[in-house]
Amino acid sequence: MQQEKAERITITLPRDMLSSIKQKVSSGSYGSTSELIREAMRLWQKKEEEHEIRLALIRNRLEKSKNNGEPVPIEEAFSRIEELHKRKLKGEIDG
């Protein structure tokens, strides 16, 4: 794997975080604090990417829903939901 050019930065961490980092490095789980921080950043980046994908999917579903069929007044929607719930409780429908 080709190493990207790195830039040195200084960060300030709470003592408990720093203690956890030092413990992982001294146990041999990571070769250095930099290695651990890089791994943490990769996980954070992946989490952010996944979050953006989920938001895009939600936006897409909302857009499809908005353009699908005629709008239903809120009172009617709740009435339909209540009726479905009652039927489910009576065992008339599955799920």
TrEMBL record:
Key words of the record: DNA-binding, Toxin-antitoxin system
UniProt keyword DNA-binding present: yes
CDD domains registered for this protein in UniProt: RHH_NikR_HicB-like
Domain of life assignment: Bacteria
Transmembrane segments: none
GO molecular function: DNA binding
Pfam entry (one): ParD_antitoxin
GO BP term, pick one: regulation of DNA-templated transcription
InterPro entries in the cross-refs: ParD (IPR022789), ParD_sf (IPR038296), Ribbon_hlx_hlx (IPR010985)
Family: Belongs to the ParD antitoxin family.
Name of the protein: CopG/Arc/MetJ DNA-binding domain-containing putative transcriptional regulator
Source organism (scientific name): Desulfocapsa sulfexigens (strain DSM 10523 / SB164P1)
